[in-house]
Amino acid sequence: MIDKIGGVNPLNNVQNIRKTENAARVSEDFDSIHLSDEAVEKAEAYYMEKVAAETPDVRADRIAEVKEKIKDPSYLSNAVIQSAAEKFMTSVGL
Description:
Strand content: under 5%
Structural class: mainly alpha
């Protein structure tokens, strides 16, 4: 019985080699995902809607700042009014 304690089973060695060979083979096929143009557009629209919902409509800090500036009579000059008008026209696409 002493010979079976550390004995080598030739069949186990062949099976272990095959397992190693199979594990070494890596499939070169890669998974991929293709999204339709419609799905991409819907995802972008969903993201924009989410951002718009999370963004406050009124920036109270800017309103308070402008109110303070308007209280100063020297602030409202033709240059300031012209600049504001140009920025507004640019923002609406005119």
